């Protein structure tokens, strides 16, 4: 038995990735430095990795030269890149849009006759088409609304929170269904939706508040019946779509005998901390639900002093913790942004794994892109999480079994010293070192 090791180090702002291989030998009673893998102990199925094709990302892509456009597509969707199979994008505008817009602005148009995807067709849809062509397969797309049109809301505007007016609940449900159908007619596999992005946050950008009672009632009495009426019963609906610390309460308050069949999963973000135990609680109480990470980024407002290594480690630490807690899929936020961290119509700038200098047609591939690739390039859709144990808190470890039977283990070392490992599986052992401040992917 043999293991291929892919190791990335980052010292003095220089990234180095190298490959090596180790043979296994019989386990003669090794006790020290052991990391165990138990392939017979299987847990949740993992559906894949992806990122958000926001209008900001799509507009940025449109400004790059042809060669760099191809580099971006290959980096994320090519067979030699990070091999994303999932995409999230927004219904109408979000903060990472050039400005605010909606597909309908006529309060009397409940028949949706004025509905237009003109804005999506400018940047998002062409980018999504190119992504699918590069992947050479249908990508699984999730749609999420940041706000209903302003006329449907209690505060009369897309930004600043507000709530959906009760008299517009059916209109809004039909609107969402029409958005899905329009995308499907254009050849995209819309498989998942969330009811509302960050329903517990009043933002200076597009936002809308839902209590758990309001979200439950909208799903049960309007959205789900509208999906059924529009022959969209195959759409997987995820609730919450907000930070982890309240995801257990939200799931308990929404999922009951009536809504259980309507809720396919719980979506979550990372902005308030790791809360891996919250994911575990939802997994334990609702074992049949998908748990999908739908957004995370390095916000300049909070992490402006962090360097590339810290940012990349934040991604890897969260991915490992989320998978070990029961996560089924990981969707990053903007896949690319311009050199300012936008465009963003309220200057809520942030980092992305790939940044683009649109003035000079230059791509900057951040270390976070490489760290995400340590998972997404080797863990296949349909992989099962399998059990592992470790001997030290200097390592974060996750192990997966791909559909073809290959085993993938990812080891993150955030410490400043090398950590020795005696990797043990099925009566065989191999020894290697995980360098200081590094990430190692092993494929058996």
Shape: globular
- Average pLDDT figure: 97
Q: How many distinct helices?
A: 11
CATH class category name of the largest domain = Alpha Beta
User: For the record, what is the CATH homologous superfamily label of the largest domain?
Assistant: Glycosidases
Q: Would you tell me which CATH topology of the largest domain applies?
A: TIM Barrel
End-to-end Cα distance: 8 Å
Lateral arrangement of strands in the main beta sheet: 2-1-21-18-17-16-4-19-20-3
Helix/strand-derived class?
A: alpha/beta
- What is the helix fraction of residues, given as a range? 25-40%
Biggest pleated-sheet summary: 10 strands, mixed
Q: Report the radius of gyration as a whole number of Å.
A: 22 Å
Please name the CATH architecture of the largest domain.
Answer: Alpha-Beta Barrel
How many domains is the backbone divided into?
Answer: 2
Strand content: 25-35%
Low confidence ranges = none
Query: How many beta-strand runs?
Result: 21
Q: What does this entry look like structurally?
A:
The structure is a single chain. The longest helix is centred in the middle third of the chain and has 18 residues, at 212-229. The chain is 27% helix and 30% strand. It folds into two domains: 2-43 and 386-443, Sandwich (Immunoglobulin-like), CATH 2.60.40; 48-379, Glycosidases (TIM Barrel, Alpha-Beta Barrel), CATH 3.20.20.80. By secondary structure, the chain is of the alpha/beta class. The chain has helices at 55-62, 66-77, 118-122, 124-135, 169-185, 212-229, 247-254, 276-285, 300-303, 308-325, 367-376, and strands at residues 2-11, 14-23, 25-26, 34-46, 48-52, 86-91, 140-145, 189-194, 236-243, 265-269, 290-295, 329-334, 336-338, 354-357, 362-365, 383-389, 395-401, 407-413, 419-425, 428-434, 438-443.
């Amino acid at each position: 038995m043999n293991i291929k090791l892919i190791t990335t180090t980052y010292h003095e702002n220089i990234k180095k990735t190298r490959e090596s291989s180790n043979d296994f030998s019989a386990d003669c009673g090794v006790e020290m430095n052991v990391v165990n893998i138990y392939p017979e102990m299987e847990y949740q199925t993992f559906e894949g990795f992806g990122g958000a094709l926001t209008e900001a990302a799509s507009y940025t892509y449109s400004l790059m030269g042809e060669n760099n456009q191809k580099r971006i597509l290959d980096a994320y969707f090519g067979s030699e890149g990070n091999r994303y199979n999932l995409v999230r994008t927004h219904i109408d505008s979000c903060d990472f849009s050039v400005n605010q817009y909606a597909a309908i602005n006529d309060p009397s148009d409940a028949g949706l006759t004025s509905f237009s995807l003109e804005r999506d067709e400018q940047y998002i849809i062409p980018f999504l088409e190119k992504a699918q062509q590069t992947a050479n397969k249908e990508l699984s797309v999730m749609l999420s609304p940041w706000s209903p049109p302003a006329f449907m809301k209690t505060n009369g505007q897309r930004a600043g929170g507000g709530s959906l007016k009760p008299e517009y609940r059916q209109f809004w449900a039909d609107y969402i269904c029409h958005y899905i159908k329009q995308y499907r007619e254009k050849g995209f596999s819309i498989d998942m939706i969330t009811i509302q992005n960050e329903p517990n946050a009043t933002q200076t950008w597009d936002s809308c508040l839902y209590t758990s009672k309001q979200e439950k009632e909208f799903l049960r009495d309007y959205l789900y019946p509208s999906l059924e009426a529009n022959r969209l019963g195959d759409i997987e609906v995820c609730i919450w779509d907000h930070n982890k610390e309240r995801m257990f309460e939200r799931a308990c308050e929404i999922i009951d005998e009536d809504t259980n069949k309507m809720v396919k999963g719980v979506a979550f973000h990372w902005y308030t901390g790791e809360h891996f135990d919250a994911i575990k609680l939802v997994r334990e109480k609702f074992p049949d639900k998908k748990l999908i990470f739908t957004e995370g980024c390095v916000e300049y407002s909070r992490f402006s002093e962090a360097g590339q290594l810290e940012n990349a480690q934040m991604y890897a630490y969260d991915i490992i913790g989320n998978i070990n807690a029961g996560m089924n899929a990981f969707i990053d936020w903007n896949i690319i942004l311009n050199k300012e961290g936008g465009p963003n119509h309220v200057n809520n700038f942030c980092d992305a794994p790939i940044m683009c200098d649109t003035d000079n047609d230059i791509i900057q591939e951040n270390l976070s892109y490489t760290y995400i690739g340590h998972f997404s390039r080797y863990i296949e859709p349909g992989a099962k999480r399998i059990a592992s144990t470790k001997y030290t808190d200097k390592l974060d470890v996750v192990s997966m079994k791909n559909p073809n039977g290959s085993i993938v283990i990812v080891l993150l070392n955030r410490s400043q010293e090398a950590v020795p490992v005696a990797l043990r599986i099925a009566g065989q052992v191999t020894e290697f070192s995980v360098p200081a401040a590094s990430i190692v992917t092993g494929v058996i």
